[in-house]
Amino acid sequence: MKKSLSGDTIKYIAIAAMLLDHIAWTFLQFNSPAAQIFHIIGRITAPIMCFFIVQGFIHTRDIRKYLFRLLFFALISQYPWCLMHSQKITQFPLNMIFTLFFALLAVCAEAKILYAPLRVITVFICAAATMKFDWCFFAVLWSAAFYKYRGDEKKMRLFFSLISLSYTAYIFLGAFENGAGLLNSFLSCLFTLGTFLSLPLLASYNENIRPNKKSKYVFYFFYPAHMLILGIIKGLIS
Fold first, then answer.
1. What pTM did the predictor assign?
2. C-alpha–C-alpha distance, residues 104 and 146, integer Å
3. Whole-angstrom Cα distance, residue 97 to residue 49?
4. 155-194 as b/e: b if 16+ CB within 10 A
5. How many CB atoms within 10 Å of residue 128?
6. Which residues are 5's β-sheet partners?
7. Cα 105 from chain centroid?
């Protein structure tokens, strides 16, 4: 596949997909055709952001500043997240940037810890820490896999696929345990297979195309801003 897409282009696609996904969660009935289409498209965002967490780790000059930036925007994004989801500020789950923070810690562990058993344990501790976060441990495991197998596309796709199918199974089991029934549980988890739509985009990534330095913060500011707007609109029409 021709590697013709810049990182900025892929990120903007991910941002647009996230917006559609959040519009669906905020205003549409989950089982409606429009909501399902938006949710399928929206599944590409998390894997792409995990991929670029790894790229950010590889290219950053200061990992501490990178971690601080994630934590800072995670904190300021929590109120908009709660507003959009009509939940109290003290309630779980926490927003996706908290998850990305632990995903970056897991990538650091993959890169810095030489003793394999300790490295694996540390990655799983980072994953376990996100159990009450958006995208929880799947995003952490994707990030670790993207880093570990960054030089082997076949293995990267394999482990990405295994984690993605685990995510689908997780949603299915959650619906089934809540009494949705076998068929409804199956139907309610199909949208999660949209994560695989991220693979052709990532395969087209050309890391030699220089990113626009100003675009670095687009996602960080767009994330809380769009949720705040959606939350305000939801409050006005409800």
1. 0.94
2. 11
3. 10
4. ebbebbeebbeebbeebbeebbeeebeeeebeebbebbeb
5. 12
6. 205
7. 15
Phi and psi angles of residue 205, each rounded to the nearest 5 degrees, phi first: -70, 125
Structure tokens at 34: 């429009």
Reported for 74-83, long-range contacts at CB under 8 A and 24+ positions apart, including other chains, are 74/98, 74/100, 74/101, 76/224, 77/223, 77/224, 77/227, 79/224, 79/228, 80/224, 80/225, 80/227, 80/228, 80/231, 81/134, 81/224, 81/227, 82/231, 83/227, 83/228, 83/231, 83/232, 83/234, 83/235
Cα 163 → chain centroid: 13
Q: Any residues with CB less than 8 A from the CB of 1 and at least 6 apart, and which?
A: 200, 203, 204
**Digitized pLDDT (tens) for each residue of the chain, 238 residues in all:** 678 899 999 999 999 999 999 999 999 999 999 999 999 999 999 999 999 999 999 999 899 999 999 999 999 999 999 999 999 887 889 999 999 999 999 999 999 999 999 999 999 999 999 999 999 899 999 999 999 999 899 999 999 999 999 999 999 999 999 988 999 999 999 999 999 999 999 999 988 777 777 777 889 999 999 999 999 999 999 7
